[in-house]
Amino acid sequence: MSEQEFFGHIIDNEEVESLSGERFEVWNPWKREVWAEAAEGAAQDAERAVSSARKAFDEGPWPRLGRVERARAIHRLADLMEARTDDLARMDSTNMAKPFEQATHDVARSVWNFRFFADHQRDHVGEVYPMDTGHHTYSEYGPAGVVAAISPWNFPLMMATWKIAPAIAWGNTCIIKPSEDTPASVTLLGRLAVEAGFPPGVLNVLNGHGFPAGAALTGSYDVDRVTFTGSSITGRTVMASAATHLAPVSLELGGKGANIVFADADLDNAVYWAVEAIFRNAGQICLAGSRLFVHSSIYEEFLRRFVAAAEKLTVGDPFDPATRFSSLASKRHFDKVVSYIDAAREAGGRFLTGGVADDGSWVVRPTIVDNLPLDSAPYCEEIFGPFCVVNSFDTEEEVIHLANDTRYGLNAMLFTENLSRAHRVASQLRAGTVWVNCFFIRDLRTPFGGVGDSGVGREGGNFSREFFTEPKAVVMQIAR
Ligand code: TXE
Questions:
Q1: Which of 26, 45, 96, 231 to probe ligand 1 with, by most ligand atoms within 8 A of CB?
Q2: 67-86, pLDDT tens digit by residue?
Q3: Which of 130-151 are b and which e, b meaning 16 or more Cβ less than 10 Å from the residue's Cβ?
C-alpha cells in the first residue's frame, strides 16, 4: 500500500474526485499519522450519486434482472472479496487499529452478508391468504427504489455490507456513505463491485463527512429508504431529515448492554464472554457488555478472574499477530473515552484495572471500574470504549430492574445454569437481543435492532425484506 493512497467516490462505476476537488485526510490511529486521502463529498457530489442510483433503478437492468441472476452477480462480488480478504482487512486495521485477525474475521462476516442476502432473496417465498369470499390475496415484494446507507467506523466494512447486501439483493440501488474516519475498505468494496460487473449506479460510494455529504443523502427526495448505524443523537437528525420526504428509516444506534452473571453461572464461560463483550474491538461495539452485574455471592471471585483476564490481553500494533487489543479508532474518540475516565474518577469510581496508557498513544487499557453512582455519566451513557462498570446484585428482580434502567435497549446477556431462570429473565429484559451463556452469536435470519435510544426497526432475514421492499397485496378473484 502506498504512503498516500487516495479514496475517491465511486459514482456510475467510475472512481472520481469531488466536483470541488476537495479531499480530507485519512488517519492511521495506531501510528498517529495520515496515511491516505479521500474525496470530501459535498451536496453536489451527493446529488450526482443519487441521480446515478435513481437512473440505475428507474431505467437500468438491476431491479429487472430476476432473482437468480442478481444472486449470481452478488456471489461474484463475494468471491472477489474473499480473494482480496487480506487487502480489505488491512484497510480496516490501518484505518481504525482493529487487530488484523479481528479485521479478517469481519471480512468473512461481510462476505457472508452478501451470500446470505443473495440466497435469501433468491429463495424467498411470499404468502397466500385464502379468503372466504371466493378470492385469495398473495404478497409480492418488489424493490423499494434508491437506498441511502450511512455506516459507522467501528466495523467499517461489516456494517456497510450489512446494509448494502439486503438493499441490492432485493433489487434496489444504493449509495453508501462510510464514516469519514474509515473510508478505505468500503471504497475498495465499491471498486470490487465494478470488477464484478455490477451495472453502473447499483452501488455508489460517497465519501465525506456527515454534514454535508450524509445529510444531503438523507434529505434527498430521490431517496426511498434510509438505513443508518451510528450515534443516537445523529440518528434523530437522520430520522428528521428522512421525514421531510417520508422515507422510511432503519436506525441502529447506541447501546449500554447489561451483562448479568448469576451465582450458578459457569464462571469460566462467563469470564470469557465478559472480556469479549467489552474489550473486543477495544469496546467500540454498540453491543458491548458495558454494564456488568454480578451476584453478590460470587462478586469478589468473579472480579478477580475478570481483572486477571483483562490484564492478560496483549495490547499493541494491530498487525502483530499476538495483539488482541489496540488503540482507539481516532483522536476524537480517544478524547471522548478519556473524558469519561476522568468523570469516573471524579464520581468516586474504584478502578480495578486499566486507565489511559499515558505513553502518547491513543490507547485506553482494558478498564474495569466499580462503585460508580448509578446516575453518573460513565454509568448511564454510551462510552464506546474499553470501559466496564461493575455492580453487584442480590435478587433476580433487582437485577432485571437495574438492567432495564437505561435509555438504551440494544442487547443484554445473562449467564446461569438454571434453565427456568434463563427463560424468565430473558423475556423480561428490555432489549432487541438477549444472549444466554454466550455472546455475539448471530444468525442473519433473526431480527436485529434495539428499543428506546438504541434504534428504530429491525433488520435481518425477512425483517430486511420488509424494509428494503414495497410489499404489495394482489387480490385475485378465484370463483365467480
Ligand atoms: O457518530 P455519528 P460518530 C456512537 C459512539 C460514538 C458516538 C460518536 O458512542 O462515540 O456515536 O461517533 C454520519 N446526516 N456510535 O461521531 O455522528 C457520519 O459521517 C447524515 C455508535 O462517528 O453518528 C458517519 O458515517 N449522516 C455506533 C455516521 O453518520 C451523518 C457506531 C455515524 O456518525 C450526519 C458509531 C448527518 N447529519 C458511533 N452526521 C453504533 N451504533 O454502533 C453524521 N453522519
A1: 231
A2: 999 999 999 999 999 999 99
A3: eeeeeeeeeeebebbbbbbbbb
